[in-house]
Specification:
Distance between the termini: 90 Å
Largest sheet: 3 strands, mixed
Strand order of the largest sheet: 2-4-5
Helix content: 55-70%
Number of helices: 5
Number of strands: 5
Strand content: 15-25%
Structural class: alpha+beta
Radius of gyration: 26 Å
Length: 196
Amino acid sequence: GRLLTVYVRDISERKHTETLMRQAKEAAEANSRSKSDFLANMSHEIRTPMNAIIGMAHLLRSDLGDPKALGQLGKIEEAGLHLLGVINDVLDLSKLEAGGLTLDQVDFGLEALIDRILSQLGERAAAKGLRLDKVLAPALPGWLRGDPLRLGQILLNLVGNAVKFTERGSIVLRARAIEQTEADVLIRFEVRDTGI
C-alpha cells in the first residue's frame, strides 16, 4: 500500500488573535465615530455663545472711556477670537472625520461680513500702526447665500496672519467676482500685506 503523510498546523490561536484584533479595531472605529459625531453636533452650542462674547465685547468699546478698561476689553476680545479659532478648527476636523461637514445656506451681506472681520482685527492692526483696508469690486452682489461663518473664519485667519506678520505698512483685503451667472457667483478673495 501507499503511505500518505500530511503535515498540518494548528492555527486556532492565530485565528483567535485575528478575531480579537478585528474586534478591537471595530470598537476603536466606533469610539472614534462617536467622539467625532459628538464634537460635530456641539458646533452650534459652542460657537454661538463665543460669537456673542466677542460681539458684546466689541459693542462695549463705544461705551467705555477709560483706557485701562478698553485695554482689558481688547484682551477679552482677542482671547475670544483666538479661542473661537481653536474651537472652529477642532469642530471642523471632527466633522470631516465623521463625514458630516456641511456648509450652511443662509443669506448674508458680504460687505457687512468683511467689515466685521476688519473691525475685529482693527485694534491689533492699529496697535502696530498698520493700515487695514478693503477693496470690493463694484460688480460684486450685495447679498449672497452661503456659509458666512466659514467664510468669515477663513478671512479672519488670513487677515489675522497678515496682521501678525506685518510690522509696518498696510493690509488690504480685496474681493472681486471672477465668474457670475444669474444663480451663482465665484468670488476671489485676496489679502495683500507689506509683511515678510
